[in-house]
Write a structure and sequence with these properties.
Oligomer: single chain
CATH architecture of the largest domain: Ribbon
Pfam family, one: LIM
Radius of gyration: 41 Å
Protein name: Four and a half LIM domains protein 1
GO molecular function, one term: transmembrane transporter binding
CATH topology of the largest domain: Cysteine Rich Protein
Keywords: Acetylation, Cytoplasm, Developmental protein, Differentiation, Isopeptide bond, LIM domain, Metal-binding, Repeat, Ubl conjugation, Zinc, Zinc-finger
CATH class of the largest domain: Mainly Beta
InterPro entries: Fhl1, Znf_LIM
Length: 297
């Protein structure tokens, strides 16, 4: 494969006429106007763009008099169109290779097209040498490395992100979701609760460590509890019936007053059992009374 290098794009010489002179094609007077000298003919820029300009091999548009032009083997390009067909790197002042199919490529991409070249160092992978093949590409074993820690993958498992390759620990550190409880990466599986990811082994009762994946549970201050432990260790006790106020099942509404809590269905007059939720009441000792019964005490 032969590599070439341009000395730089060329521009057509344009001048301004000071004496009477006509465009070779449209016969317009070129006095005081820009013109191009093409094959010993004096041509106005409009006629040049329309009749004389070369066509860009990439974008198929004319290369005007005011554009910089590159050429190779009877083909022409705008300076901005002269790019690697693979990575689109500008090649106006870079070495390049011309493929048999007409494509222009930079040195690295051209090497990749030539047989079994290592995707890491771009050198040929010799037959019989230790190598890694992945998605129809090949690497020397020592070149097949994790993008993050730079260590060869060898016999380890690996994961990809786009075209990038990572060993499993680096991939987990960089991309895996973090468990809401232990803050460590979740490499597989896991449980989602309130839009937060958890390891299944972390999603257990905070008190008895019972797994909660398929059990009834509730949460309190970022911890989760099974129903029994929540009743025993966390839930407030009703000032009336002395049982836990859990919010489960019957009687989920709660009445709070001066640091005490009641099930709504327990917030009744001690004497006549009238429900006092959302009504006036009087507290006497540990008991509550409606105003009428309080007067009779």
């Amino acid at each position: 494969m032969t590599f070439y290098k341009h000395s730089g794009p060329r521009s057509y010489l344009t001048s301004t006429m000071t004496d009477r002179f006509d465009c070779y094609y449209c016969r317009d007077n070129l006095h005081g106007k820009k013109y191009v000298k093409k094959d010993d003919k004096h041509v106005c820029t409009k006629c040049f763009d329309k009749l004389c300009a070369n066509t860009c091999a990439e974008c198929r548009r004319p290369i005007g008099a005011d554009s910089k032009e590159l050429h190779h083997k009877n083909r022409y390009w705008h300076e901005d169109c002269f790019r690697c067909a693979k990575c689109y790197k500008p090649l106006a002042s870079e070495p390049f290779s011309a493929r048999d199919d007409g494509k222009i490529m930079c040195g690295k991409c051209g090497s990749r097209e030539d047989g079994n070249r290592c995707q890491g160092c771009y050198k040929v992978v010799m037959p019989g040498s230790k190598n890694v093949e992945y998605k129809n590409k090949v690497w020397h074993e020592e070149c097949f490395t994790c993008l993050d820690c730079k260590q060869p993958i060898r016999t380890q498992s690996f994961l990809t992100k786009g075209e990038d390759i990572y060993c499993a620990p680096c991939h987990d550190k960089k991309f895996a979701k973090k468990c809401f409880h232990c803050k460590q990466p979740i490499s597989s599986g896991g449980i989602s609760y309130q839009d937060q990811p958890w390891h299944s082994e972390c999603f257990v009762c905070n008190t008895c460590r019972k797994p909660l994946a398929e059990a009834r549970f509730t949460s309190h201050e970022n911890n989760v509890y099974c129903v029994d432990c929540y009743k025993t260790d966390v839930a407030k006790k009703c000032h009336g019936c002395k049982n836990p106020i859990t919010g489960f099942g019957h009687g989920t509404n709660v009445v709070n007053y001066e640091g005490y809590s009641w099930h709504e269905y327990c917030f009744n007059c001690k004497k006549c059992s009238l429900s006092l939720a959302n009504k006036r009441f009087i507290i006497n000792g540990d008991h509550i009374y409606c105003p009428d019964c309080a007067k009779k005490l």
